[in-house]
Specification:
Blueprint (H helix, E strand, L loop, with lengths): L16 H4 L1 H16 L8
């Protein structure tokens, strides 16, 4: 069983997301990692 919670489409990116939209991918990956471990950095921004 999977725990897939969300799908994100990144505009302007195809097969090489990390090269085509690196900042957006990094933002989404950090948000995902924080969600998995339960960290909320929004209070620090």
């Amino acid at each position: 069983m999977t725990r897939m919670g969300d799908v994100q489409l990144i505009d302007g990116a195809g097969h090489w997301i990390q090269q085509e939209q690196p900042a957006e991918l990094a933002r989404l990956l950090v948000a995902f990692a924080n969600d998995v471990i339960g960290v909320d950095h929004s209070k620090h921004d």
